[in-house]
């Protein structure tokens, strides 16, 4: 006799109910809430210290030696120093300073033993302008602290609970810099590749930890007045719904962004191969090459090298607030010089790949926004979505991130954002060649 059609869903629902009501799972949820607080505090002070160091390197120190803005040559000694600091971390400390950014976010969780190297690499080199973001080091902080708590509690033998807590810790950490738990949760849903009860059982702890972490992180930012560096666009030009011209020019622009991002990632993979031999010396060479690219941008445009050197959230905010302050030539120079620097950094340095790619996508789209019928605001929206989809391989999460960044009127831009994400994802998959991972486990969804 054939089983009823709803038998399997009924069994799945019963299994989910049993999982959610089990004492062990409830304890796991409580632990995730409790973990969200120290992880958020650690992330807050990590990002706060990074921004203080960044401000000192690129604002206070140039002013102290008589420059209103950093001169064009400023990135050369800064990036050389970054390479000299990073070389022994990569070659001698456990974990090699964290994941290779060319492999995207994620991979195997960073454990307590490898966490000091990842934190040291980020704090010592990101403020010097290595053209990478803080998202991967923050995820390392989250997973490392979560696994440390599990081991201290004597629960390290439960591999499934350890994996869930490590994922929850990473999600809590990344939610702080993405402005809340929604984008982090969608990134988890899309990247995990799970379904049914397994997804729900994993998602709930991550939501609780990330919501708690985001609340604490935001609260401390308001109470202390320190800059926390979240990816946000506080000022946007007047928004209007996209018209036919925005779609006509926007979708080819999304495809162009995907090609540029994929080519830069291919450069990163070649850099990984090149640095496998004589790693320390070649890490210094790569960091210096990044400095040359950033200095070239400042020399060509006469603008501050900090626009190309740092992770990109500050420059992205400036672009959003004043999209016409950059000439097309300056935007093209930013895309070329920062794109080259980012590609090199992906394979040799340490940090996150998303923030710089978002800036590159926005700059490319705004450079194209002078075309007839192509508005600056739709260009900014699709540029963010397309770049994020191309670098992460997660079009849904990229769409959500772009919608959240565009603010309360983003619903007008949502159709264009979603279509740009899908176009960029497909084009990136078509352009990307099948290559082995660059020495480390691939990130979820980022390098399939």
Write the layout of secondary structure elements.
Elements: H1 7-21, H2 23-64, H3 75-92, H4 115-125, H5 135-152, H6 159-177, H7 181-192, H8 196-224, H9 244-275, H10 279-301, H11 306-309, H12 313-321, H13 328-348, H14 354-368, H15 376-392, H16 395-406, H17 414-431
Keywords:
448 residues; 70% helix; 17 helices; mainly alpha; globular
Question: Explain this structure to me?
Answer:
- This protein has 448 residues and is mainly alpha-helical.
- It has helices spanning 7-21, 23-64, 75-92, 115-125, 135-152, 159-177, 181-192, 196-224, 244-275, 279-301, 306-309, 313-321, 328-348, 354-368, 376-392, 395-406, 414-431.
Brief digest:
With about 450 residues, the chain is an all-alpha fold. The chain is built from 17 helices and no strands.
Gap between N and C termini, in Å? 42 Å
Query: Helix/strand/pairing class, anyone?
Result: mainly alpha
Radius of gyration (CA) equals 22 Å
Number of strands: 0
Low-confidence stretches: 436-448
Query: If helices are DSSP runs of H or I spanning 4 or more residues, what is the number of helices?
Result: 17
């Amino acid at each position: 006799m054939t089983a009823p059609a709803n038998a399997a869903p009924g069994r799945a629902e019963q299994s989910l109910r049993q999982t959610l009501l089990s004492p062990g799972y409830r304890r796991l949820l409580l632990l995730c809430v409790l973990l969200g607080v120290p992880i958020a505090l650690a992330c807050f002070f990590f990002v706060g210290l990074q921004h203080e160091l960044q401000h000192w390197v690129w604002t206070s120190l140039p002013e102290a030696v008589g420059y209103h803005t950093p001169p064009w040559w400023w990135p050369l000694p800064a990036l050389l120093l970054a390479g000299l600091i990073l070389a022994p971390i990569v070659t001698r400390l456990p974990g090699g300073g964290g994941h290779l950014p060319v492999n995207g976010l994620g991979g195997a969780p960073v454990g307590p033993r490898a966490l000091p190297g990842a934190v040291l690499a980020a704090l010592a080199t990101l403020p010097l302008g290595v053209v990478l973001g803080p998202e991967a080091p923050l995820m390392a902080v989250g997973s490392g602290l979560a696994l440390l708590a599990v081991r201290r509690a004597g629960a390290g033998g439960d591999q499934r609970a350890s994996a869930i807590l490590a994922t929850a810790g990473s999600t809590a950490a990344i939610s702080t810099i993405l402005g809340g738990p929604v984008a982090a949760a969608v990134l988890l849903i899309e990247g995990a590749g799970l379904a049914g009860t397994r997804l729900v059982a994993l998602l709930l702890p991550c939501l609780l930890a990330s919501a708690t972490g985001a609340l604490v992180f935001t609260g401390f930012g308001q109470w202390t007045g320190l800059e926390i560096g979240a990816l946000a666009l506080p000022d946007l030009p007047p928004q209007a719904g996209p018209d036919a011209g925005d779609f006509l020019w926007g979708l080819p622009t999304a495809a162009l962004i995907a090609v540029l991002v994929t080519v830069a990632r291919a450069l990163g993979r070649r850099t990984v191969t090149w640095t496998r031999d004589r790693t320390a010396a070649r890490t210094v060479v790569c960091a210096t090459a990044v400095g040359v690219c950033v200095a070239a941008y400042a020399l060509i445009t006469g603008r501050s090298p900090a626009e190309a050197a740092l992770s990109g959230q500050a420059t992205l905010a400036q672009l959003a607030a004043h999209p016409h302050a950059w000439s097309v030539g300056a935007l093209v120079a930013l895309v070329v010089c920062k794109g080259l620097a980012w590609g090199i950094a992906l394979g040799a340095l340490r940090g996150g790949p998303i923030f710089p790619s978002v800036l590159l996508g926005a700059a490319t789209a705004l450079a194209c926004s002078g075309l007839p019928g192509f508005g600056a605001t739709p260009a900014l929206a699709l540029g963010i979505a397309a770049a994020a989809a191309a670098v992460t391989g997660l079009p849904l999460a990229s769409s959500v991130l772009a919608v959240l960044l565009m603010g309360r009127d983003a619903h007008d831009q949502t159709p264009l954002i979603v279509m740009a994400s899908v176009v960029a994802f497909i084009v990136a998959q078509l352009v990307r060649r099948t290559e082995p991972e660059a020495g480390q486990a691939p990130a979820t969804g980022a390098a399939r």
